[in-house]
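Appendix C. Worked example: RWD domain-containing protein 1
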Amino acid sequence: MTDYGEEQRNELEALESIYPDSFTVLSENPTSFTITVTSEAGKSDETVQTTLKFTYAEKYPDEIPLYELLSQENLEDNDITDILKLLQEQAEENLGMVMIFTLVSAVQEKLNVMVDQIKTRREEEKRQKEKEAEEAEKQCFHGTPVTIENFLSWKAKFDADLLENKRKKMKEEEQTGRNKLTGKQLFERDHNLDTSDIQFLEEAGNSVEVDESLFQEMDDLELEDEEDDPDYNPMNLDSD
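Step 2, the predicted output written as structure tokens:
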């Protein structure tokens, strides 16, 4: 009869000695632990990293352990999917044997390949974005090529807009002309207009006084009779 507990304890001791800086026990019942895996430095000295969590099944290694990615650095969603798929494949191939070291080693190799793939992919995405930006900029400068069809379409729309604006303007001018009253019409509508200014001043508290000394009687004015003018000639009036 297989002693699963003994096999699990022995593997834990081995893992702790192999990964002293990245191995952490989380619980003992069930046995759960994490191992942090970091890739080798890539071409740009960049690394990728993930923390794997394993939990022993009761009959491990005859049963596949539970596994998950607790955290990651510089990995994208499709990279995480690839790692989980790899773990499943390796676990099925090694069923019946202690396998944690094998699983971690497979992930390590995968990360070493990914680190350069990620750099290449990001450079390609950057070039693609720059190309799209250049195309958009060219489009702004060159605009849409003019053809007979799109010119005629633009011309028809332009003429329609111009005609509509002209109609609106004429309607506004017509409406303005109807609402505008002449001075005679204003007076006929309100006969108090001739005294409205004086009334306005009086309501404002300003009294209106007329200095009669500024005026003279007509009899006091010295008006020269045309007949007394020595140069007066009635015939000149007829000639005019």
